[in-house]
Amino acid sequence: MSIIYLLLGCSLLMAIIFLVAFIWSVRSGQMDDDYTPSVRILFDDIENKNDSENEDKKTEEKT
Amino acid sequence: MGETLSARKIKCYHCGDDCESFPIQHDGHSFCCMGCKSVYDILSQNNLCDYYNLESNPGIAIKNPVSKTKFNYLDDEQVLKKLIDFADDQIQKTTLFIPVMHCSSCIWLLENLYKLEKGIIQSRVNFLKKTVSITFKTQDTSLRKIVELLTALGYEPAINLNDIESQVKKSVNRKLSYQIGVAGFCFGNIMLLSFPEYFGLDEFTQHGFSKLFGYLNFILALPVFFFSAQDYFKNAYKGLRKNHISIDVPLALGILVLFLRSAVEVVSRTGIGYFDTMAGLVFFLLIGKWFQQKTFDTLSFERDYKSYFPVAVGVVINGKETTVPVSNLKIGDRILIRNNELIPADSILMNGDAHIDFSFVTGESAPVSKVCGEMIYAGGRQSGQTIELEVCKKVSQSYLTQLWNSEHFAKQNESKIQTFQQTVSRYFTIALIIIATGSAAFWLVVDPSLSINAFTSVLIIACPCALALSSPFALGTAMRILGRNKFYVKSPEVVEQIAKSQIIVFDKTGTITQPSESEIRFIGEDMTNEMKQNIVSLARNSVHPLSKKIVSFLNENIRIPISDFHEETGKGLHGKINGNEILLGSSSFVFNKNESTDEADLTTKVYVKVNNMIKGYFIFEHAYRKGLGDLIKNLKTNFDLYLLSGDNESERNKIHSIFGDHSKIFFKQSPLEKLKFIEDLQKQNKKVMMIGDGLNDAGALKASDLGISVSENTSHFSPASDVIMDASVFELTDKFITFSKDTTKVIRMSFVISLIYNFIGLSFAVQGNLSPLIAAVLMPLSSVSVIVFTTVATTLFSKKEKLK
Questions:
Q1: Interval B221-227 mean pLDDT
Q2: Segments making up each domain of chain A, as ranges
């Protein structure tokens, strides 16, 4: 049953890592605004789409 | 005519406004004005047309062009220092508040500012706070350039006196988040480590794990006790020192006893203690606190005049105009006020035609004309040409700002609100201590070894966790529901305060009337089409608000050339159309001196005279808000209603028809009289709710037990108050009040539920045989069931009132 000691250590260590991650995320302000990132994440797609469209046009022009 | 017009209505590609009769065609799109077109040009030149794809017509129309000198003050070192968050040799950071931000297109454009101004390194939007944080290179650009760019795009940042004068930058308080994180972490782990004991695992393994688990629990409980729970001890101590027993006292007592007894049990190896109960208790309590802490970030409930005053104003010194911060204005300074600028201090008009819009102060939007030598109070907004004024009182001593010097604004009114929870917790704590000592005394006689056990058990099990959670969750839920319905309350306690109100005092202008709209009627001869067209053509030439209202009222889409046009500002218009002489204006303008008007008139009228014949007049009356009649009828049965108006009595009869013949209506009330009136009502021991809007109500709103300010645009203006209500939901006021009352009922019911749990627990505790397992089951069970009950019941009540 001494394996329990190892398991205990691992589980506590894991939990502490998550706690530290949480504290870091709060400290860096990730919890301050819970709306804008949800909108922002969609923007990249639009930009990429346009970029690729532009590239398509460019290649068309070249040919 | 009107129907065909509306069918052909063309929306502006940029701002979505109606393009009216002359849309500007450009690049395949229609625009309503040059302002919108120029913004489109800027964006299309920089490949930013995605702005129009994210949302349709996302733009903001630039209705009032901003003068070039407006942001002169941003070159001032002193001012800059206050606005820049961070600066080194290379870069600077600033955060600007942009109230017009409203959609994802706005976010997108504001985060792509770097494509428009190369000095900008990065811009980040916080949509909830409506702010944008901009990092820029000092060398390549300046704050002024950025602000001017934003203004050119329609996103004018709101920079006001408060930003400059406030000393402390707001720091975000994240302590509660840390406390919850730590408590949650410890709670989870302690639960896991306690299970073996509950299931009797140790008997099988014989390894003495229980000792190890006990000590681990002890270590994990330390951060909960010393960090997560510390505010409860602090608040309980603070309260006791003021002889005030709040709910924090039994909570702190419970946590303390839980911790000490568990520590003793673990160290003496008589058990594993109640650490899981303690960690869970603290965790749930903190969640409740967090739930209650929801605030409406973009709204400020503590605004005073400083939040609305400009930062700087143009001052003429030795014949030259320089920009001077408002706080440095001295008596005798000559200031220049341009179109749409606010007058910052009481001053005397020296030069120019003043048409002052006092809607900021009184809610009355029709401009008042002033002549040279007249005194103009601070807070008025000039419309028209630039005027020159001489300051005669300092900003802080103006008529308007004096309201803030009254005692109401000095005293802290925290203790004003006595919540139901506070009342109950006092009796609860006393009862708790009596039961605990009683059972201890009983066991001291019967079996002394169980005495301490029984005493601590009572304090543990009766720890009013569920009791402490019912208020935050009921009120927090109510607050969110009200917020969804555009009725924003300052703090959860306010919901209880609404329910207690007995008297409702209304302001008139801007509160029960709609400031932007007035009812127009034409009284006189039937108007021919030709006459309508003539009047419209004449009125189109004037920027006076009454002329504009007449144009939109007559809805004629035509422009006939006029000869011989002249406008006497504030009096009327004169012109010749097809040989007919037409006069449009006030009675003194239209009537000859020998033809006197019939009566001393209190209403606003515009007369029409064609070829020396009076054809009739337009009458302007305040338009009352939609649903006012029904609202008053519903409220009348339960409340004493009063109406205080700063206006004259011209609409007395109309108001009586709405409020009833015996209603209590008072006219010509000054801001201080309103404040006094509220105080007199309070002296009769009545709870007074005041509903107002302008700064002239600020004193009354603050003095009342509950101040509600009605705002046409919640991101713009509202005086300090407990509630900010969007004007569009004014007719629902009675529903909000009923809902608040229902919410307090929910709290009462959940108190009963939590007391039942306490009695069950106590029946175990007084016998001295409270096992950790029972405590560990009872505590989360009672907490969770109370949380579920309050949120569900509150939501159901909101459905009953048909709220969103």
A1: 95
A2: 1-31, 33-63
Same domain, B91 and B151: yes
Out of B107, B129, B182, closest to residue A39 by CB: B107
Question: How high is the pLDDT of residue B304?
Answer: 63
Nearest CA in chain B to A48: B50
Q: Mean pLDDT in chain B?
A: 80
**Which of A14-18, B296-300, B493-497 reaches the highest mean pLDDT?**
A14-18
Interface test mutation site (partner B, options A24, A32, A47, A52, max chain B beta carbons within 10 A)? A32
Please indicate, yes or no, whether residues B536 and B600 belong to a single structural domain of this protein. Answer: yes
B178 and B278 co-located in one domain: yes
Nearest one of B302, B300, B290, B495 to B412, comparing CA atoms: B302
Q: CA B739, CA B267: separation in Å to the nearest integer?
A: 52
Distance CA B298, CA B716 (A): 10
- B125/A15 Cβ within 8 A: no
- The Cα-based distances of B590 to B180, B502, B687, B703 in angstroms read 73, 50, 51, 46
Q: Report the CATH number at residue B369.
A: 2.70.150.10
Predicted confidence (pLDDT) per residue in B553-572, tens digit: 877 777 777 778 877 766 78
Angle CA B263–B453–B233, to nearest 5:
55
d(CA B359, CA B340): 12
The pair of three-digit structure tokens given for residue B498, joined into one six-digit string: 């609404």
Query: Is the domain of B548 the same as that of B675?
Result: no
| pLDDT over 90 at B233, yes or no | yes
The CATH code of the domain that includes B97 is 3.30.70.100
Asked whether residue B604 falls in the same domain as residue B730, the answer is no
For the cut 60, the answer to whether the pLDDT of residue B411 exceeds it is no
Q: Which residues of B23-40 are buried (b: 16+ CB within 10 A; e: fewer)?
A: beebeebbbbbebbbbbb
Residue B648 near residue B550, CB atoms below 8 Å: no
Q: What does the pLDDT read at residue B793?
A: 94
- Taking a C-beta distance cutoff of 8 angstroms, is the pair B725, B488 a contact? yes
Q: Angle, nearest 10°, between helix axes B275-292 and B248-268?
A: 150
Count of CB pairs separated by less than 8 Å, A with B: 59
Specify whether B495 is located in the same domain as B550: no
Q: Which of A22, A31, A36 sits opposite B127 (nearest CB)?
A: A36
* Domain range for B346: 308-405
pTM of the model: 0.77
* Residues 6 or more apart in contact with residue B775 via CB below 8 angstroms: B274, B277, B460, B461, B761
> Which tens digit of pLDDT belongs to each residue from B27-67?
788 887 777 888 888 888 888 888 887 777 787 777 666 66
B375-376 and B664-666 beta bridge pairing: unpaired
Which among B559, B605, B565 is positioned nearest to B583, based on CA atoms? B565
Of the residues A7, A19, A52, the best mutation for testing chain B's interface (the one with the most B CB atoms within 10 Å of its CB) is A19
Chain segment B509-558, per-residue pLDDT in tens = 778 887 666 777 788 877 788 888 888 888 877 767 677 778 778 777 77
Over residues B166-196, the pLDDT tens digits come to 655 555 678 888 999 999 999 999 988 888 7
Tell me whether residue B765 is in a domain. no
Is the residue at B759 inside a domain?
A: no
Q: B97 with B131: CB under 8 angstroms? A: yes
Per CB-CB distance under 8 Å, the chain A contacts of B216 are 8, 12
If one counts the domains in chain B, the total is 6
